[in-house]
Design a protein that fits this description.
2 copies of one chain form a homodimer.
Chain A (H helix, E strand, L loop, with lengths): L4 E10 L2 H20 L2 E7 L4 H7 L5 H9 L2 E6 L15 H8 L4 E7 L17 E7 L12 E3 L3 E9 H20 L6 E6 L5 H14 L6 E6 H10 L6 E4 L1 H14 L7 E5 L4 E5 L16 H17 L3 H18 L15 H14 L2
Parallel strand pairs in A: 1-2, 1-3, 3-12, 5-10, 8-9, 8-10
Antiparallel strand pairs in A: 4-5, 4-11, 6-7, 11-12
Helix pairs in contact in A: 1-9, 1-10, 1-11, 5-6, 7-8, 9-10, 10-11
Bound molecules: 3-isopropylmalic acid (IPM) (2 copies).
One 3-isopropylmalic acid sits at the interface of chains B and A.
Chain lengths: 367, 367
Amino acid sequence: MNPSSTFRIAVLPGDGIGVEVMQPCIDVLEAAMRRVGNVALDYEWLEAGANTYRETGNALPKATFDACAKADAILLGAMGMPHIRYPDGTEIAPQLDLRFDLGLYAGVRPIRTIPGVPSLLASPRAEAIDFVIIRESTEGLFASRGKGVVTDDREARDTMVITRPVCERLFDFSFRLAEDRRGSGSGKGRVTCVDKANVFASFAFFRKIFDERAARFPDLAADHVYIDAMALSLVLKPWEFDVMVTENMFGDILSDLGAGLIGGMGYAPSADIGDEHAVFQPCHGSAPDIAGEGKANPTAMFQSAAMMLDWLGERHAAPSARAAARLITDAIDAAFADGRLRTCEFGGDADTAAVTRAILAAIDNDT
Amino acid sequence: MNPSSTFRIAVLPGDGIGVEVMQPCIDVLEAAMRRVGNVALDYEWLEAGANTYRETGNALPKATFDACAKADAILLGAMGMPHIRYPDGTEIAPQLDLRFDLGLYAGVRPIRTIPGVPSLLASPRAEAIDFVIIRESTEGLFASRGKGVVTDDREARDTMVITRPVCERLFDFSFRLAEDRRGSGSGKGRVTCVDKANVFASFAFFRKIFDERAARFPDLAADHVYIDAMALSLVLKPWEFDVMVTENMFGDILSDLGAGLIGGMGYAPSADIGDEHAVFQPCHGSAPDIAGEGKANPTAMFQSAAMMLDWLGERHAAPSARAAARLITDAIDAAFADGRLRTCEFGGDADTAAVTRAILAAIDNDT
Ligand SMILES: CC(C)[C@H](C(=O)O)[C@@H](O)C(=O)O
Ligand SMILES: CC(C)[C@H](C(=O)O)[C@@H](O)C(=O)O
């Protein structure tokens, strides 16, 4: 069959629970690859994050950045600690540096109900929630990070920037994803542009480029929803959406809202994807309130790792990697299916080790 | 007792369902004031909105603006129509002009469950949702309205502006509201600042001023939540919040999200309040999809009118106006209490007339 592929993975556990979910994640990756065969990962563990900043004065040391730039993919736990900050008071967030410096314009944040994980919504249709938010991740309001100006302690400004080249790649990425999803049977063949084009010139520009690119994908449906209306629709009828694409700040907000719908940050994976590089990390932060207790829900970390295998498999024509990704996703679904595995967010007693055991068992039992 | 007060109300029905809910609203106001006595309203009906723009080339004619500036309060239905736009493609939104030109910095958006109106959330605690979003309404990202720049069809920029004087008044307003709510038994004595101070200088500035003003209200709790975390918390535990205060764009998003939690825009009133003037209007838009059918839910319009009476009563030391406000609010609760009045958003057959009848009956039955 296909020859065996080995991929180099830069592993950045980071801070807090990021460290706690990383080794279980590698155990899950290894178990899945063992079942599938023909694919292997070479891990390089690297320092970055708030604790690294405290120890070295640098949140993302050059050696770490260089290793990330050379790796086939980057796996990240969580970074930042509320009490460790840059001198200007903002938080340690080297994941933002990676997005900017590696050009990871497409922040992919799938929101899917795992049957057996309680929904926060009353409607039984919440079981059908399955959409993907594409958050532009290199410009928008975040272009102003480190550049905002405060004048005379009287007035502050931050400027949002939208550029054509980034938008074109972002929208093409979104339409291609909608095609793939439809092909795999989970999508509706629809991309929704989320903006505030009724008020802002930059969002009218964003929408205009969206419409231009939509014309190249005539088989897909393309529509627009204002950000405020989308915040409402995600509560009222999230099951109606497929792929939605939006600006950086809006995507940050919508992806947390979306995570809430399907059980919270413990079930929300992400990928920040560029033309050459990609970072895979759970949407959750370092969670200092529960760090060190072994209680963190590792599911989003595992889901992010599955996204990594899928991306590697597609990019390098390695079907085994994609098969291992599917195995992990199916094992997660199987482990939660009967509703008895209750993680600590829901007051359950399934800690990191228990969730990992259940998912490992499901990988081994997959037939 | 107190002498009779008469207030001049500028009435701007606007477009679409705005027109349909306005006369019922005045019927409700009149019924409540009849019961209470000692307070009267003088209505001046005025033209503004998308249809006015189409007919006159001006969405907010000078005569309308002048009458609004002279009135004791402004009652607004809804404005804007998707197919009628300014030459630059943005929407007709004279409500934004009123906010800016009359200095209505505090956008007050209460989110409260009306028992009997179905919640979208699964938790029984959704019955206890009762918080208020204060959306700054004269600057923030909206300072860029009409000023965004697109260069060579390659790059677009909009600049967010945060100023100290507006923030100080905004935060003082929020803390005073939290005091009043605690006094009336419905609040927790807590104000939450919602920002993105971990990334942006302007939000760090916003938060710093919040902390300065919080120090003047030592009896109240003051805390901070990042906007993304708040979008999540509003799905997971909205019943925990009391007053939250945020920037214009963030407030726009959170208030629609909040409305979703308690049944949608048909139950979400608002007030835009400045030091001299105030506009009261439902959060919903002109809803062209159902306009003309008599189906619009008028509840948010009535709730907004109750907010107006309450504000007038407090400002002019007219307890009868406040009593009439309470009468309307109680009547709304009474009308929906048994769960049989189902508005069209929920597939029910309670149209504008039916909801109005039920609430008028409850006003007359109040003892
Ligand atoms: C930690 C924070 C700076 C970051 C962001 O705002 O992008 C986080 O919220 C995320 O969504 O990845
Ligand atoms: C109509 C629109 C411009 C307006 C806004 O964004 O402020 C509306 O959404 C609101 O919340 O009042």
